[in-house]
Amino acid sequence: MSLPSSSQAVFEAGPSTPSRKRSRWEPHEALHDDAEMNEPQPPLKRRSKSKGTSLSDPRSQAVTPEPRSQIRVVVERQRPRHSIYVPPRTHHPPLTPSRSVYSYERLNSIEEGSYGVVFRARDKETGDIVALKKLKLDDEKHGFPITALREVNALMVCQHENVVGIREVVVGETLTQVFIVMDFIEHDLKTLLTVMPAPFLQSEIKTLLKQLLSAVAFCHERWILHRDLKTSNLLMNNRGQIKVADFGLARRYGDPVGVGGLTQLVVTLWYRAPEILLGATTYSTAVDMWSVGCIFAELLLKEPLFQAKGEIEMLSMIFKLLGPPTTTTWPDYSLLPLANTINLPAPHPSQLRQRFPHISVAGIDLISRMLAYDPEDRISAEEALQHPYFRESPFPKHPDLFGSFPSVAAGEKRRKHPDSPHAPVRAADYKLLTEFDAP
Amino acid sequence: MSVPLYPLASLEQIEETPSLKDGIPYDLEEDLRAYGCKLIHQAGILLKQKQVAVATAQILFQRFWFVTSMKQFGIGDVGMGALYLASKLEECPIRMRDLINVYDLLLQQATHSSTSKLVSQSKHAVFKYTPMSYFGSTFYDLKDALVVAEMQILKRLGFHVNVVLPYGTLVNYLRVLGLTSKETVCSRAWGYLNDALQTPVYALYAVPTIVCAAILLATRHLGIPLPSTPPNCWWELFDADWEDVWSVCGHVMRLYRERDASDQTRLLSMVSKKGVRKWLDDHAVLN
User: Exactly one of A188, A228, A246, A288 is catalytic; which is it?
Assistant: First the structure.
């Protein structure tokens, strides 16, 4: 929603021409658009100040002819300059029906989850390689499933460079065939962590974590909770960029949370925040931040932080690592529905330093604030981006300097395939490397 | 923070709507759109649904008729589908059976009042609702139609079902203009925004333009002067163009003109696509 303050909403209009009105319907030239979207308009008091000059006066007729060298400037000024909060009409997409799935040529299937199948496919028109996710719509009693709606909507709302891009939604012949078309990304972080010979460097972890945090901050700002952040849902391309994917459990949230509350059946166990484990139904953005903390730890350890088999074990692992919650670290603990059913272990201090002996003080501070017990106290994505950890040496590595890896999803050299009769030669080398690295 | 972009009809879609291509005149389409939205609104009230869901449904409904002809789908079914879908989008889902019953009640009521008006004024029969049978085929037919309508809305809008509602913007603009102390302006402008949901403007113009039109109508009606002579035009503060604001005002004001009872009866007979097709056949013979 646009929230223009008085100064931002005032735009400086160029001299008006008769064709100006109709031009709203025409696509603006790229040059003009870019200038318009990228540079925020200066907060102007110009209107009142420069009343005498003809250039800032939208209705003035007299325009002195400009020298030729300034023509570009004139072109930019001829159209009304909108405030960045009110894009011109042509920036809004037109109403367009879904295309047919037959616009794509199916290549190979990538994975099959509980929520549907993902295929790799090629756009017949442009040749682009994409990921097609088929939504499961069989025997739905309540029309189009609300979870699928949330997924599509969340992806459309959260268009960000570190969120997997949704291109469109296409349909098959019958009404039960619906596919989400997304950018194809070569790797997921989970597979990458298990096959790569050495853990990520500190500088690389900082880059990845910053990207993840900016994506999460972006979603939260648009009132979307992801609710299933984990390394296998973080995709990574060969240019050092990660993309948050799988919004199958995402939903919009409100402040305060609406009537009925939220379900506790969310987030993969290993990444699930303690308040959900203890039955809270009014959780919020902090649950995603707990997951981010677990992912941060996993990047450092090269294996998941909490590998519990059940909810009780999960809680005891958390208590063991961080020390049981106290009235200072989590004042509202006793109010949680399941708090009475849990026997807390004897108090002991947090073991984070012992678990991560090689990370800096700032790094320990960041991870402990992501894994803070009290959701109110847990660091937000926006705050985390400003954390000193990202501003101390070693600095975040530029994404272009990341190495590239063969993509399992694209069917490239499957390195880990014991049954394969002709294992690629490098796989053997690679095995040696991992064995060498193993403790 | 970047601005959310929402779909708006293209120039071609506005110049010749799918219904117009099928021979449905523009003013009839306008009436049917408005009536469909009224039904959504009434159903929303009876279902005690949140206004955000009702408004979202009406905007989706308006968008739908820029990509689909009323010869293909009825305004009743699509209205139900839109309200059902919007309730999910706004995280306040409703039961199919409740929705179907409410629509059935509303249509029976409308038929009753329009026929009793025509018969005679003195013999005003009391309306009595006859509910459909619980396992009857009427219910299952309507349920199928509802599911199809919901899916068709999604498919024909390309799943671009994000909607930006105007209310927050109105509050901000009223603050900027220093009008928040005048309660009559606020509630009146708010009312115009709600009435505008019965017109296609939310599928035609960006929210700031529509909000400016609501403020313009409210302040003009109450005789409150705002700077309106160039170069100081208040709507330019909000990036709206006069022509657009004026056009939105026109759309809204057309809702309030006097109408015949026969217009209402004609609309009622065209709630389903069958009625629309019959009307088209009848008028094809005449031409």
Answer: A228
